[in-house]
Amino acid sequence: MNPTEEELLLQLSQPKSRSSAFSIVVRTYQERLYWHIRKMVLSHDDANDVLQNTFMKAWNGIEGFRGDSQFSTWLYRIATNETLTFLTNKRMRSQNSVDNVEESLLQNLQADNYFSGTDIQMKLQKAILTLPEKQRLVFNMKYFDDIKYEEMETILGTSVGALKASYHYAVKKIEKYLLEEE
């Protein structure tokens, strides 16, 4: 049986139990964080790389966790920041416009052996890729992960009102894209 978040934080704060407690953290959160990252980078290999960086940052920063938010929220914030950094670096390396990077991500998804989605799921991913990065992030967190706006506010540092607006505009843009693709 897994320890509660409070018990886990206590174990993480003690040098003797930190390593074993962090193994529990990885087992508990790796799948959720993987899919959170994967929805933004689309590639299985890239998602695994970003996930590994996320856990390394969490491990190195565990002593700095102040408990201002839930531990899971802190991990999501790290994963989100690592994902955005990865995408920014990808843009800088390719020296392409935003559209070309999104097209590159889509090509990676279409060639990804790990993507087992239907044509409808592929169309949805194409529609999501047309969104600005912030709207895409908010849409993915709300639609796929069912994260509450208040938790997103902590993760993204954006007001609930702005997040609701971003989600609303994202949904409208996706609907429009899907209707045009029929």
Can you tell me about this structure?
The chain has 182 residues and is an all-alpha fold. The chain contains 9 helices and no strands. It is globular. 25% of the residues are buried. Residues 122-174 form the RNA polymerase sigma factor 70 region 4 type domain. It comes from Paludibacter propionicigenes (strain DSM 17365 / JCM 13257 / WB4). GO terms for molecular function: DNA binding; sigma factor activity.
Which secondary structure elements does this structure contain, and how are they paired or packed?
Elements: H1 5-13, H2 15-41, H3 44-61, H4 71-94, H5 98-111, H6 119-129, H7 133-144, H8 149-156, H9 160-181
Helix pairs in contact: 1-2, 2-3, 2-4, 3-4, 4-8, 5-6, 6-9, 7-9
Distance between the termini: 48 Å
Number of helical stretches of at least 4 residues: 9
- CATH structural class of the largest domain: Mainly Alpha
Please count the beta strands (DSSP E, at least 2 residues each). 0
Fourth CATH level, the homologous superfamily of the largest domain? RNA polymerase sigma factor, region 2, helix turn helix motif
Rg value: 17 Å
Overall outline: globular
Average of pLDDT: 86
Organism: Paludibacter propionicigenes (strain DSM 17365 / JCM 13257 / WB4)
Family: Belongs to the sigma-70 factor family. ECF subfamily.
Domain RNA polymerase sigma factor 70 region 4 type: 122-174
Domain RNA polymerase sigma-70 region: 26-91
Attribute tags:
182 residues; mainly alpha; Rna Polymerase Sigma Factor, Chain: A; Arc Repressor Mutant, subunit A; 2 domains; 9 helices
